[in-house]
What we know:
By secondary structure, the chain is of the alpha+beta class.
Amino acid sequence: MSNKKGGQNLEEDRHILFYRKDVYFSSLKDKLREGSNVIDIRNGLKYLEIDIIGNYDYVINVLGRPLFMSHINQNGNFQLFWEGRFWEVHEFVESKWRAEADGELKDFYQGLILVCASMIKFNKGESEISDKLMEKALRLFLRVSDSKINTGLKVLYGE
């Protein structure tokens, strides 16, 4: 996703602010969109994630200081998958997928992207969509040899 405004790549200023899950309330997204460019709010496995482009001072004024923050384009790594930070992993794996020429590795990376998307939907309570995405991922994985999976995992873990 490459949004541009006035020649500036908006993705360069995209962050995720992580909060305790108990700060969530039903109209939170509407409230935060009043004063900021909130892309999404995700109730992840461990944290409430506020995905935002641009200034996040308004979010901090409403919710207080986050537990931690992540710059979407700088902190990507596959290890975050095990922390339930599926959107960051999705973005990280997508960058590998875009750059990959090998068809099997592309299928492997695309499968992982779909697994992350499935987990995001599952955490939002959208289990039917989550199941369909997971089925697509599993079909892709069946097309990938063990040796390519091992190669792909080495790339993702930086080995």
